[in-house]
Amino acid sequence: MEGRREQKATRFGMRTKTKCLIYAGFVAAFLIIDAVNPDGWVRGVAGCRPYDAQLEVAWRKDRRDAFSLMDHKRYGEAEDKFRSALRLAEEQYGPEHDQVIKTINALATACVMQEKLPEAEALCKRSLRLSKKLYKGDDPRLCVPLLGLYEIAYESGHYAIAEDYAKQKLDIAEAAFGKTDPRLVEYLDDLSSCYGQQRLFDKAIAVCERMLKLLRQRPDGSDRLLGVTLSRLAFFYQSLGKYGDAEPLYLRSLEILKRVGPGEGDDIELSATVRNYSQLLRATNRPAEAKKLEAQYGHH
Question: Is this prediction's pTM over 0.70?
Answer without folding.
Answer: yes
